[in-house]
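User: Can you help me understand a structure? I only have the sequence.
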Amino acid sequence: MKGSTTTTGVACAVLSTATGYGRLADRLDNVHEKFLDNRRGALPALSDPYGVPPSAKIVLEDPRERFMGPAAWHRNVVATVFWVGELPSQNNPVPNTASAWDVNWQTNFGGYDHPERRSGYLPADFTPALNPFYIALPYNDVATGGKHRPEAQSVIPWFWEDYRGDGISVCKGRWTAIHYNGKVCYAQWEDVGPFKTDHWQYVFGDESPLPNRNAGAGIDLSPAVRDFLGLRSGERVEWRFADAQEIPQGPWKNWSVSSSSRFPASLPPSQPPRPQAPKTP
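Assistant: Let's start by predicting it. Here is the structure, written out as tokens:
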């Protein structure tokens, strides 16, 4: 009996020791695994201690030819006339003392662009500080709150080419060509309207302007554009976007806040060259 008891005791001691070693090994494995996890988490910081940004994103934009060829013309669009300083009316619910992108538009322009008191293509009472050949289209790439609209980078063909920061419009100042009755006038996009501010499907796509109280008008033209083309408000035109490099000399060129090279106010309507009218496909 004594021998049996001794043997049993030794066996229990060995088993206890083995169990202890097993628990210790498990604890060591756990500690080692946590150590490795910590090292794995630290590896990115160790490999990039200065936080170098990732490689630049490659952006593929639509071919420019699609917005320059005959198919790019928006045809049979009702045009209405608007002007800097225009006050609200039944068919113009928003005052034009400010634009969508310039709260001091009338001040920066130099005054009230009177649609009737004209001297050549300019208002009779002053020489504008900004281009009097301007238009409005029903899309604003900057939404309320100062951020670009979510679709802007996808639908505006030159978005990344002209991008200068969030909330800075890439549409303001964009050149357009407007055709009417065999003549083409060039003007810059300076305001948003008529009526709509988010109709990108028309401005950058192939939809028609949405119905509105101005016979479904899809573009607003300044008095200078009206006078160059010889049209009346409510008539139909064709228009498209244009690159700065293709803009010919004319009364629409060389206008800016700091420019001292401007066309004289008395420039006769017959003097500028007549650009080629678009071919109907």
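Now, to help you interpret it: Residues 87 and 95 are 5 Å apart (CA to CA). The helical segments are 2-47, 105-109, 152-155, 159-162, 200-203, 223-229. Let me know which part you'd like to focus on.
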